[in-house]
Amino acid sequence: MHKLSLLIFRRMWTFRLIAVSALLLLAACGGGATSDPADVVLRFMDAKAKAHADTIRSLICSEMESAWEQQAASFGSVEARLEGASCSRGGESDVVACAGSIVAVYGTETTSFPLTSYRVVQEDGEWKWCGEAP
User: What is the number of structural domains in the chain?
Assistant: First the structure.
């Protein structure tokens, strides 16, 4: 009976050790935002070019939520794509600067819309696109 109690005791401590280790690992990974603001802006602009409403809605900030349908419809009736797009955030700023453009084809005419700088905000631990930067 003594060996059985010792075995149960060891298993309980092993389980507790594993559980505590897993919690510590999750806590260490959970700090800060879970997305890259420059990547969020690129994904938003790509979704805008492709008229992917669900993606736009998931990446837009609450302040701009009323404009998500307008953003989704911007290039909905044309063939559009990102070209030469890259974005970067300067330090801890809430502005992401982008280069490249959205190229839209209207019938036989091609028009290029240059990307600019965009504001990002953190909401619920996630970065969100929040309009053009002033």
Answer: 2
